[in-house]
């Protein structure tokens, strides 16, 4: 016991001396004149250095206690019997840089083996897993420049944009496998399973654009400005998907669109409660196309309901390709699924039609839209489409004057099979795509659309996945899984029979 204490006294000398110097500084008379802000600033820096020294001293102690093994076998069976001490490697940690000293097991024509690295689960690069975690969290919140500043404030380390991007890509390496194996949420009170998909463009660097977009971007007529009808073609679509449970809340068309404007009312609203969404899961990808992402959404939904006993619904904004892919996935998997087109999108078409028949700003247009909306909610989308066309014809509108009316009528006619709002309302299902619209804003626009941002493919994909992870509330659980996977990926394969002699 005495020998052990002596070893601790010797090994932790640097951190003890730093701590005693800090105590002496705080107890000195000169320190009594400092403001609390000055004390905070000094202690923040000195405290981080104390923590770094404690970590360094502990690593040095582990180095003195490392037991020499008779032999170590690498994965191909090569025996490492020669042992050298004093091999070091640097590690950048959240407290600052440290040195790890350990035994090296050598064999002719083979790479050195370091069992102590496996014991510490050190990453392959010099940046610690804690620093990788910090980079992943901060890069998901703000720009890489802001991330670098946050890391410097927390650790005193200066990281460049490329280093941060590489750390975030590594941090997201195990997300797909994590979500395929994690525990199922408890959704006993959510008999309805909802799916929703959408897409949002991200400004990419030229080499990260899809082939068709890149070709369009280089085919503009002028070099200094766009010609009429040309687009910048700088964006690549990020596909966004969601799976969620729905707690039904039946409603009527009148609950959505009142027959007359409601009079101001004091006290709580009497409007019926909307369906509640629970256990929301989000995913987003800029590398996957719509077909691949929708397949991933169905995978998650089937993981939650493998026997297809729940009621399945899909909420979309009317995009034909998305509808086709959802229909194909449901058919291939033998799933009965109801597709519902977002009522808000429908309403926008009706409003555009209204201005064909009313002067801009005419209050009567509001009542006209409300009447048509209630008819659509009652299941009469086809009749509304026909009525809009008849009105345009009866008023003798020219082709240019009636274009929005015809567009609205075409939309209602083509989508009427997905506008069965009476069934949705009576069953208590949602009829709007608020979940996925919010996800597109939060996951994509709020972070990926920062002014001046130009994304590479790997960096954009990693940030989207990490933001989805954080939105799902799974970051801490994932990080424990990721650290374990790092050990399996970096260390276990180096040794015979996938065992590390410790």
Question: Would you kindly provide a written description of the structure presented here, covering whatever features stand out?
Answer:
By secondary structure, the chain is of the alpha/beta class. 50% of the residues lie in helices and 15% in strands. The strands form 3 sheets. It has a 5-stranded mixed beta sheet with strand order 7-6-5-8-9, sandwiched between helices. A two-stranded antiparallel sheet has the order 1-2. Strands 3-4 form a two-stranded antiparallel ribbon. A hairpin with a 2-residue loop joins strand 3 (82-93) and strand 4 (96-106). The chain is elongated and about 95 Å long. The two termini are 24 Å apart.
Distance between the termini: 24 Å
Radius of gyration: 31 Å
Secondary-structure element pattern, one letter each? HHHEEEEHHHHHEHEHEHEHEHHHHHHHH
> In percent, how helical is the residue content?
40-55%
Strand fraction: 5-15%
Give the SSE map:
Elements lengths: L1 H10 L1 H15 L8 H30 L6 E2 L5 E2 L1 E12 L2 E11 L8 H6 L8 H13 L2 H12 L5 H11 L3 H7 L10 E12 L7 H7 L17 E13 L5 H4 L19 E10 L4 H15 L6 E6 L3 H14 L3 E5 L1 H12 L9 H14 L3 H14 L8 H13 L5 H7 L6 H15 L8 H15 L3 H16 L12
Parallel strand pairs: 5-8, 8-9
Antiparallel strand pairs: 1-2, 3-4, 5-6, 6-7
